[in-house]
Amino acid sequence: MFELTDEERELAAMVRDFAEEVVAPQSYEADRTHTLSMDVVARMGDLGLFGLPFPEEYGGQGGDYMALGIAIEALGRVDQSIAITLEAGVSLGAMPVFRFGSEEQKREYLPDLLAGRALAGFGLTEPEAGSDAGATRTTARLEGDEWVIDGSKQFITNSGTPITRFVTVTAVTGNEGGRKQISTIIVPNGTPGFTVEAPYDKVGWNASDTHPLSFAGARVPVGNLLGEQGSGFRNFLSILDEGRIAIAALSTGAAEGCLEAAVDYAKSRTIFGSALSTRQNAQFTLARMRARVHTARLAWHHAARLRDAGRPFAEQAAIAKLVAGEAAMDNARDATQIFGGNGFMNEFPVARHYRDSKILEIGEGTTEVQLLVIARALGLAG
Question: What is the pLDDT of residues 70-81, one digit of tens each?
Fold first, then answer.
């Protein structure tokens, strides 16, 4: 189950080379200036990375989620901002349209999304509805043949780039048995009443495009409903399950990037007359880092294989997200310690990983949410 095919190994090598030759050289400056390189995005599109898990009939590569995870891991090793741009572009931008859209919506939106000519965001999180997505307050009411949307979203990736075409938002569209009826609606960028607010000043992922969104009487055609009315809650939960695999792959790449940098530095750093790598405390730290990478990779590979085989995978995705997110954060901390004072300087990748990795324990479901999913799988209702 855990062996890569020849094709998967070729993909991993190709994206790793791209990451080293194209992504890594621009990472420090992109982080410093909080700038997402649209040239890098375009080149990822040219490589077919945005279309990896989609069928060829819509412009995809005919691959699967395993292939997507392999690409994201290779990118996350050198630049988490670029990796999350790909992850969100696929899992949160294109995948909802592919999974739940009408044939007309697929034909209209997917070709550009899968080619990297366009990006899309997924508006789920709100100021008062983070992990509790069922507490959504954004509303959409029907007036004639239009949805009228009011509310706000926060922390929305890929929502304000020069090539962002739309965001898919969750909104309350009615009541069913005393419970909110939540639906998903496509809102094109530039829609009157839809405002992409100023970008956040973030701790990490500085080159990733992230904005709050506001809706004040934003009107879109009734045909912009994505999936059936009232199916939004169920649909976005399945999207999050898949996305957790991709985030686990990103986390694994980050953990490996920290390990490789720390090993190289420990071998070259002389302390008290000998290489740091000869000190047992450093060796043990690096050994633990290696074990975390190995475990994280096994976890996300298992979840991806289950998903691609059409088998239940929600619990395994939560485990992968939990294990890999913690591996990235722990390895970033240990790598920074190995680097000493240099680890506190942003020019070194481990410093950026240290800032970037914390969100891996929060985004796409917090650590606590993953533990809740796993506990429920154990039959521990609460």
Answer: 999 999 999 999
